[in-house]
Amino acid sequence: MHADYTPMSIADVQRLRADLDQRGRKLVFTNGCFDLLHAGHVRYLEQARALGDALVVALNSDQSVRALKGPDRPLNCENDRAEVLSALRAVDAVVVFHDERATTLIEAIRPHVYAKGGDYTVDSLNREERKALEAAGTEIRILPLVPGKSTTNTINKMLGSNDANRLRIAVLGSGEGSNLLAIINAIQTGTLNAEIAISLSDQADSNFLKIAREAGLPAQFVNGGNNPRKLSEAAQKEIFEHLERARVDVVVLAGFMRILKEPVISAYAGRIVNVHPSLLPKHKGANAPQLALQAGDSETGCTVHLVTAEIDAGRILAQAAVPVFAGDTAEILHARIKIEEHKLLPQVLNEWHERGLPVRGAGAS
Ligand code: GRF
Question: What amino acid positions are annotated as catalytic residues?
Fold first, then answer.
């Protein structure tokens, strides 16, 4: 097992190419997403490898897979895809690239042979890529695809008829992402029949985004602007567009620290939930565990509620209480509350879905 597997750098591949060249051998290059590996991929890579003496696979990064195939992909994050690919007999090296096209890599590596899957002809290759290949004196080889084997086919088969029934949720967060993880776990263990269609964060380096990416979820950073509690108008719009593109049924705010306004609030009225670390209506706003301590409460907890234009004031869907102990700090108390949040939030989503969600476009109840 390679827990800390790292793909090859371009400089490493350039050295490999120079070494092969010196020995009169050939470097074969191909590129792709290789999201859910199937026999078609394996056969294709074997054939590509047979065209020379070493095979380098340029793997599309998560960001470029999303740009090419939409927000539901990739299913597996780039490090996992690179690790799996590099374990194949036919593959000598994997390098991750971020553009939609492999032009820059082709220019840097100047492979002896370029292999491409049979849905292309030499003429339908991207113009820029083809120019770079011709400039490098690379031989272009189109390999036949294995009929009936494709990632999309595999995904459709796995989804089966249950797909139509599955709740498509968006999760928005700014921080630790422990509630996101609780939702992921509930989906994986089958206690929540849902799919995270998009995860969004206003914090580029948040643990929330790290968890989302490691789980292979579509994950996006949205620049919210300078005010840490507000979202710029452009960001409000950008979030709305992400939600629409991902066709979500429900929006879950799981530690999202900025205030969501129009157009999302109206378009998703009655379908946006927030989890808050207090027994609302007590202790609205930020630092709720600290407020419970300052108030001398002997009990506090968490609330899952609908989101409306007024902060922490929408209809309460469920609550769970926890005791406050002498000597509690805000951190200790918050950690105790979160244990309940992690059970309550997936449970509410599931029950809510089973009882029938308000249809798209319905007003807040
Ligand atoms: C939770 O306590 C939630 O109630 C509050 O923000 C916190 C988010 O925690 N709104 P995490 O990022 O899910 O770990």
Answer: 276
The phi and psi torsions of 141 (rounded to 5 degrees) equal -125, 125
Q: How far is the CA of 200 from the centre of ligand 1 (A)?
A: 14
Confidence check: pLDDT of 121 > 70: no
Mean of the per-residue pLDDT values for the chain?
A: 89
pLDDT average, residue stretch 277-297:
96
Query: Which of 172, 178, 179 has the most ligand 1 atoms within 8 A of CB, as the residue to mutate?
Result: 179
User: Is 322:336 a contact under the CB 8 Å cutoff?
Assistant: yes
10-152 and 166-350 in the same fold: yes
Is 270 a pocket residue for ligand 1 (Cβ < 6 Å)?
no
How far is the CA of 308 from the CAs of 21, 111, 170, 344, in angstroms? Answer: 65, 57, 17, 20
| Cβ-based neighbours of 146, under 8 Å, separated by 6 or more | 39, 40, 43, 44
* Atom 9 (ligand 1) nearest CA: 255
Better-scored residue on pLDDT, 352 or 36: 36
pTM above 0.90, yes or no: no
CATH number belonging to the domain at 10-152, selected among 2.40.128.10, 3.40.50.620, 3.30.750.24, 1.20.1290.10: 3.40.50.620
Report domain extents, the chain: 10-152, 166-350
Round to whole Å and give the CA distance between 193 and 353. Answer: 9
pLDDT at position 166: 83
341 C-beta closer than 6 A to ligand 1: yes
Please state whether 61 falls in left (phi above 0), alpha (psi between -120 and 50) or beta: beta
Which is higher by pLDDT, 259 or 145? 259
The proportion of the chain whose per-residue pLDDT surpasses 90, expressed as a percent, equals 72
Fold annotation for 166-350: Rossmann fold (3.40.50)
Does position 2 have pLDDT exceeding 60, yes or no?
Answer: no
d(C-alpha 182, C-alpha 176), whole Å? 12
For position 67, what pLDDT does the model report?
Answer: 86
Segment holding 181, helix H or strand E: helix 178-188
- Give the tens place of pLDDT for each residue, 158-189: 766 456 678 999 999 999 999 999 999 898 88
Q: Whose CA is nearest to atom 5 of ligand 1?
A: 255
Q: Is the CB of 301 under 6 A from ligand 1?
A: no
